[in-house]
Amino acid sequence: PLAREQRKGSVLAFQEGELDYTAFIQNLREALQTELDAMETQLHYLQARSELEFYLDTNKP
To answer: Is the Cβ–Cβ distance between 24 and 32 less than 8 Å?
Structure first.
């Protein structure tokens, strides 16, 4: 959520003329990278959880 807010703030600042194009693009890149990193971390968590559930399943034949 924080990265999304950063993106929205950057768009608004750019529209208001408070950021030049280069700073705007850099801010967007950083915000998107933060979101991608969070998604990758969540993916790794879910993969690990799935593996744990598989190996700890006591109902296997």
So the answer is: no
Coil vs helix vs strand at 60: coil
Q: Taking the CA atoms of 7, 8, 14 and 18 in sequence, report the sign of the dihedral they define.
A: negative
Measured distance between the N- and C-terminal CA atoms of the chain, rounded to whole angstroms: 43
Answer yes or no: are the C-beta atoms of 5 and 31 closer than 8 Å. Answer: no
pTM of the model: 0.74
CA dihedral 29, 32, 33, 38 (to 10 degrees): 170
pLDDT band at 61 (very low <50, low <70, confident <90, very high): low
Dmax of the chain from CA atoms? 66
Q: Which pLDDT score, from 0 to 100, does residue 56 have?
A: 92
